[in-house]
# Entry
Amino acid sequence: MTLNFHAGDVWSQITAVVESAGRTYAAISFIGQDAPDLLPLGESDVLLVNAKDSCVRSHATNPYALEEFTKRGVVVYSSDRLHAKVIATDQHAVVGSANASANSTRSSEAVVITKGLQDRKQIRDFVKREIAENGFKLNQEKLNELKRIFDEAPQPETGIPGVNNPAPQVTGFPWALGPVYLVEDVGSDLTDDEESALLEGRSRETGFSLSVAQSNELGEPFEVGDIVIFCDESTVRAPMYVDSAEIAMDSDPSRKGQIMQQKIKHRRSYARSGMKNRYDFENHSFRELMEELEESSGFMELKGAQRDNLLRVWFPELAHEDVALNG
# Structure
């Protein structure tokens, strides 16, 4: 049995494990506002948390996130005794320190991930036993009560790393705003080994993930600092920051790639159908944007309101008057 230890940026690993799983049992004591993005649970999955009144009052657990999980069909329970952070999917077991929150992505966390059948069974049994002995199911009436407690409690001025530290002040877009391109995703045939070779030794900030785009399939390479939004016939992917110049493969110099940086919470793609009502600003409709992309052969630079409004799909804080795009 192989044990894989991950430290620092653990949520990119956890999210990937849960995203590709069947039925999942998770016991995560404290849940933040961003938990539904970090922990992509779905219909009939089981989530056990600690939603004790004092945990909600201290903003360690966010009842609005729990409500979102229930809307997705997740069965949510609470145990006043819970302090564990464990997950069992149909393929993996995860044991570590990470609560499901943006605060956790900014903290020094560690997890062990294994495919051990016995480990998965023991975690499922632990979750079921804790629910049976100490838990209760969160219905809408209880969630409404918890939301009232949460709203009436003051935002903590100081907190515990990974639990309820106040979020850093919003300063706008996370990168300097260079050119922003909407690009039709033509796919990539780079192998896992080739992508791993390009990413080897690359560092990233906590809260961000790195990936590879095959630049020789895109025409001219992007410049470092460009912002790229890839799309295909069914999805529009979250903005990615170009983090490297074009790099040729040692085995075949005609095959080239560029490193892309992305916010971990935005790793999941947004379906077009879900964006139609979110992208509508000063006569720039989503349908018109897609028509423009088609007319420009799948590659266009976004500017002005058209650019800003599409970025706000993923960065809604940019809609506030006191938060401006950098650059």
Observations:
- The longest helix spans residues 117-134.
- The longest strand covers residues 256-263.
